[in-house]
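Anyone? Bumping this.
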Amino acid sequence: MLKKVLLGSLGAVLVLTAGILLGHFGIQRGSTTPDWVMDHLSHDRSLVPMCLSRELTKVPHMATSPGDEKTVQYMLKRWQDPDTGLDQAWREEYKVYLSFPDPNTPNKVTVVSPSDAVLYTAREKEKAYSSDQEDPEVVQPYAAYAPAGHPKVGLYPPTHRQADQEDPGVVQPYAAYAPAGHPKAINAAPYGVIGVLVYTDPWDINDGKMSDNNETYPYSWYMPPSGVERGSFNTHYGDMLTPYLAAKDDTYRIPEKNITGIPPIPTQPIGFEDAYALICELGGEPAPSEWQGAFNCTYNFGGPGFKPTSNFNNSDVKLDIYNREELKNSANVMGVIRGSVEPDRYVIYGNHRDSWVHGAIDPSSGTSVMLEVTRVLGRMVKQGKWRPRRSIIFGSWGAEEFGLIGSTEYTEVNNLNQSNVIYKIPVYIICSNATLRASGSPSAQSVILKASKQVKTPGSDSTSVYDNWIRYFNRTSPAYGVIPNVGFLTGAGSDYAAFIHFLGITSMDISYTYDRTKTRARIYPAYHTAYDTFDYASKFIDPGFTSHQTVARTAGNVLMRLADSLLLPFNCSDYAETLEGYLNKAMENTVLEYPVPAPISEPLQNAVRNFRSAATRLDHALSILRPLKVRRINDQLMLLDRAFLDPGAFPDRYGFRHVIWASSKAGQATFPGLADAYTRARSTGLDSDWKEAHRQLSILIQAIQGAAHTLGDAI
Amino acid sequence: MLKKVLLGSLGAVLVLTAGILLGHFGIQRGSTTPDWVMDHLSHDRSLVPMCLSRELTKVPHMATSPGDEKTVQYMLKRWQDPDTGLDQAWREEYKVYLSFPDPNTPNKVTVVSPSDAVLYTAREKEKAYSSDQEDPEVVQPYAAYAPAGHPKVGLYPPTHRQADQEDPGVVQPYAAYAPAGHPKAINAAPYGVIGVLVYTDPWDINDGKMSDNNETYPYSWYMPPSGVERGSFNTHYGDMLTPYLAAKDDTYRIPEKNITGIPPIPTQPIGFEDAYALICELGGEPAPSEWQGAFNCTYNFGGPGFKPTSNFNNSDVKLDIYNREELKNSANVMGVIRGSVEPDRYVIYGNHRDSWVHGAIDPSSGTSVMLEVTRVLGRMVKQGKWRPRRSIIFGSWGAEEFGLIGSTEYTEVNNLNQSNVIYKIPVYIICSNATLRASGSPSAQSVILKASKQVKTPGSDSTSVYDNWIRYFNRTSPAYGVIPNVGFLTGAGSDYAAFIHFLGITSMDISYTYDRTKTRARIYPAYHTAYDTFDYASKFIDPGFTSHQTVARTAGNVLMRLADSLLLPFNCSDYAETLEGYLNKAMENTVLEYPVPAPISEPLQNAVRNFRSAATRLDHALSILRPLKVRRINDQLMLLDRAFLDPGAFPDRYGFRHVIWASSKAGQATFPGLADAYTRARSTGLDSDWKEAHRQLSILIQAIQGAAHTLGDAI
């Protein structure tokens, strides 16, 4: 298929690097040198193909399904294996609020007129390609079918060029399309919209390919016309009935009517074949050029209704909601390798386990990589040959697709959302998907890049992941020149959300992707559809599973650097570079042109300068490190991201406290709260909005100064 | 005067204890044994009398006054002294919102009828005893004069027996009296009250003594009839215009109209001579017996108006507000002794510097004790003879009387309200007043008691502070039997508030007090009046300043145990005992009889049991401690109080996050949020109130489980 480029992980030549660190900084007590890791993670004995084909993708395993439970059992068995398991493994049960299809009885019906055949066509066609008979129609709360035509039912044409910038928080980006600034899903209701149909336009996902006969799966990796991309429309994360509390049996639950963050109106994803039939019949004025997609017709605004010449003209709508909400148990599977020297410092490696349907890539590619990493590390631990300096916690999260529930409940269960345990977790790694990208806190960039130099790209004995990566996806850094592009974890696209945004734990997301110069597809086309199967993955995504092995090596390398190195492999100057970039962008945008009070860009520049100085001083301290200072400096490195938390920064945005990485409407690489507040103030001109902009500026300055303080010398 | 009993501090025999700890646990690198401390703190060379008489109480030093600035300069000079100063000392400036008297122009006038002579009589008489001519009339924002008589102006008779239980947050307890449950100050407005006069009844403060001629100061320690006890009525803390942000020049400030937490109506303290004239003239039904005070008349409800036979009958009211609000600079004076082994762990020793008028006791007794402690420690540091294991930060806070402003801004300035620096502060000690009591987190009880055994009570060569204390003020502990009574830091009475309630830093408040069996006075009678002068303090509070010296020795002992001991001297089993007491009280109160869902007391009992087990295991771990575990266990001890923080627990209560120590209307030793919610639910019977009770229960369980987790083994 398409040429692939490794964007995230890296190898296993931890040995040499660790040796250098140790030789320079002191004796690493209680930790053996893991020179076996690369070898084992390279071997053909890799579990990955077996996991993927035999265990993890045979059945659909949406949250709480029999397939999910089967995977739980399988992982527990692996992690409790006396020869290759971990020190401990257990399941943690939560009772969470989910939504399931009720195929027989629509529980809410609003009949406007009878015209209700479209959805079932779509679903039936999609099923024809599925490898399993279980019902893949897990839909979000309140998701429902609502054909367009009624002027107040929104059928939103795509806005491929701007959708990237909307960053709607937990909502899976692109699950729904709507022009930037135009209300969609949860925002549509106040505009009088009573239902939303969402679809994925072939322009965005299929490079315009639409044919069922030879252009799409099973003939290529492109999404078939009947493919339905699901996604959560929940703007909060975690269990909806127990905000900020772990969803135990006895936990207080808010009344269902008090749930916020989900659309108050029915929302239903459909395939593009149905969207095509509807959009090309829409009447009204032509939509702007950036709304136009791959269909061979002009996308019109659609209001009021269909074209006078359309068969649908004067059609009305019947809305049937075929889902019901239920409290269900969902499990996290947890495993631990205990640290030898600093067992109270935890490196968390997580991945979700539930999928929308079969989820061969999302999430089972990540699950199989995690199982492979634990198999190799676990065996060395069981044989007494190795034990990391710090503890490693492995988490297989449940119910991610419903709104990052498993990982969020985990952060809440022992008051992890308070200060007590937070400090123990230096980093959170997510590896949700073997074909994505690498993102992380800027301080984590260097460890990813270092590791990527030590792993070979799939199918090559000479080209490193780093070399391949820099060729296909790079950026220019003031400090390093051209380097591979490591993204940022803005928004809340996956399980890292509770860790980075709420807890301020330095996080990264490692995965593999394809050559983006050859396709406009924002992700592999079967993403979140019923076509994400073992067949699809093994034929079109990763034949031979060599990329999976590369990701396992890379994730293993990063993980062991984090868990084993005497000094945490974080680089604060890289964080300073990012803040300077944000500052420059803010200045360009004249974000700082406040009407009142006058000279307030100065304190922000001072704060960033102060941060840079502190980072430089800390870098220098690292170079002349005395052994006794190690834990202290590790604390500084570990706490850096936490210094950017402010619980009061975004009072209306559930769970967002990180003032650098919160998602932003501005969609630019600059300070999100400041940019949004400024944009709003400039647009309204209201004094109260300028005041909020000033408040955001004060919060930002205080956070950056605090971060600089964190990096500074003790007293 | 009255026999005094030491309630808080303790001595300086740190040597022996430190030796035991060190011998048992390992070598304490870089820290010398401070066997000189008790000697020096015992010497007659003590600065205390000199500080008090010569420097600190010559002039009034309310916040930002010339007297305050003079004290700043004096402290900086001391702390920067090349022979006896600290490693560093500096001033930190904040621009804060304060209220000052405007003697010439009333800025708000509501004339109802002319009858405005009372206040000025009171003030003039009070001034006659003052040793200085500066204007002592610093009043709170919106405080004003409002004689009673109008049915809607509240003149609240005292409720001495219940006032103790009201715990009105930052409001200085007893500054205003009102029956429990009856609206006062900030709560009065919704009931139609348009102004409040508050006074201190002789029953509460003077053991009933009222005579100006021979019963009160200058003939005894009792408050003269003209004495006016001031106090803040602000229910929030910190600068009012910059909530949760440090009040720097460029910081965003909320509009003044958005200030919350202060009474919307005029509130004026008056002396009891004026209250007497008014109360005994009030008509209406007799008030309940617990409202009656020391005046030789029946306290009537007063509504409507005065007795028909009174000269005041049919009088109306003129309200003149003689104050103005201003942004003013206020300074914290900071000093540091750098730690030798763990410089990134901070013990904070703080005391406020501003007073209502002269403040010989509150706060200058604490300031002089702090100066004495720093003189002795600073000299040893300058001579190169000693350096503590951890860093010590000394803070002289400004503008405490206006609402704990200096200490709160300090916690905000470098994002201390976030997670980054929090963890570095094991403990905060406040020593605001040499004649108060000892309170603290339960885990800090043991270090106070240990120290108290090593210091002699004033004027004795054989009786320890501990022996004296247990005789006059004790309690029965299930674990220890009868022991001296160490209180809890519930509410927000002084500068510990931002540390314990917002940051969850284990805190204590150490001070001296008198024999409570001999007086009903809840505090020394000149408290917060213009009579709190050097003359008063040296004649009636601490002749010869021997108690001051004892406090210096005690605070020094505690401080050095915290800063120098290898293992933090905190005892988690004592925390477990407190939680068990709270649980028992909650069960007695049938706090747990929820209508729905049924069996939810079980999880709370489990949580407390779990905490106890973890505490016991940690105690055991301490007894077999290996040196490498020291820092890890210290982290657990340090973070224990932080585990009880929940930012969502009390959304309507500014700055309160600690679910065990938050103030409570229930006024009982039990879980505050649960008790208040239950009381309310039982009273209203509303389903929504029962739901809130359940929510509080879930928060509590999660916090206690999280605390148990903090004490548990690493992984």
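Late reply, but here is one note on the structure posted above: The first strand of chain B starts at residue 4 and ends at 6.
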